[in-house]
Model the fold of this input.
Amino acid sequence: METLRIGVIGLGCRGYGLIYDAIVPQENARITAVCDLYPDRVEEHKNKLTAHYGEEVIGFADYRDLLASGLVDAVIVSTSWEAHVTIACAAMEAGIPVGCEVGGAYSVDDCYRLVRTWERTKTPFMFLENCNYDRRETSLFAMVKAGLFGKVVACDGGYMHDLRSEVCYGEENRHYRLRNYLARNGENYPTHELGPIMKMLNINRGNRMVSLVSVASGAFGMNAYMQDKDPTHPTATAKFHQGDVVTTIITCEGGETITLRLDTCLPRYYSRGITVHGTKALYTEDNDTLFIDKEHEKYDWDAKALWGNFRELAKPYQNNDWNEVDGGKKVAGHGGMDYFMMRDFFTRLLAGEAPAIDVYDAAAMMVITPLSQQSIAQGGAPVAIPDFTGGYYLIRK
Ligand SMILES: NC(=O)c1ccc[n+]([C@@H]2O[C@H](COP(=O)([O-])OP(=O)(O)OC[C@H]3O[C@@H](n4cnc5c(N)ncnc54)[C@H](O)[C@@H]3O)[C@@H](O)[C@H]2O)c1
Done:
């Protein structure tokens, strides 16, 4: 099989971006089917893609019909969060490899369902955590591997993204986040920072996350935003459950801590706030600075002399994807990481290789959401994190 026939399930904002930025430009894949609950979205992409390929792309309202159609070799699931596990499991049961978009789970049981289905079917499953393919993160992986940080002791990260408009106008935009912010309170989107941090700390490959504590601030940001912008809108007075800022601290078996911050309800600039702190060096994303012990003078930090030095220092560690970009390759999708992630998924599928971010990694990331909800509800109580590998994390490479 030279070219993979791809079905895309979930045609909202993300489905749109993945289709045109990350899948259509690939040489070894071609979209043959699309699916969404909204007929207008199916119609739009079916028509656009049929015109693009010059061959009919088939639209489906029900993902089960798509899976049974014989039209696809693999599917991408880019639906709202609550449908991820059910659709991914149905695809694996049908023997159709699946790339599943990110998001937290709704229960620990959901995560076990995913893992057990993969263990039974062995159908390839990849968790589409695109930040593991970004320029900064891939350079950090190489630096950690080369020992530049010494023993990595503590990592921080966050999903810090002003989503006030997206959430408050969720009804008009038919967007799933609104119902989640109204009903739930937890670390609902841990994966963009946790995916890269897990890789740096060898989670599921010699190390594991053992427990977490999670606390949430009150919910003020959404109402304040809408009272200012659109005071008669229902979300100006709706009761949001989701705390504006959720802080989660995870303890790992290897003695490391991971601090996550979900910060999506207040005005702010976008950041994933990655910090890597080891016995030999410190990296902080917010001023893009690398501080190396014995090389940098600690009081330079105050003088801001080092701020922004990471890009230069990271050059020798840059991977081939980003060397291609610097060499002139045009890529799209969050600056290119979406394209590289999808290329890696398809290339490994065609080569019969295991995906880079597997079902155990997915479960470990997704379970943070229900466990953080549990911890917050108990006033920040410690909650144990399951080992989905059943002890195999000690020997997995
Ligand atoms: N990796 C990234 O950078 C990134 C960025 C944005 C969103 N996402 C993820 O992508 C997913 C979608 O986000 P979005 O912003 O596009 O949401 P959206 O609400 O705009 O779109 C979701 C779509 O899924 C469809 N859908 C829901 N259940 C379905 C089902 N059973 N069958 C078929 N279609 C179904 C909905 O009708 C909707 O059109 C989420 O999981 C989100 O976390 C990832």
Q: What stands out?
A: Residues 9-15, 35-38, 41, 63, 78-81, 83, 101-103, 130, 175-176, 334 surround nicotinamide-adenine-dinucleotide (CB under 6 Å). Residues 39-53 form the longest helix (15 residues). The radius of gyration is 21 Å. The mean pLDDT is 97.
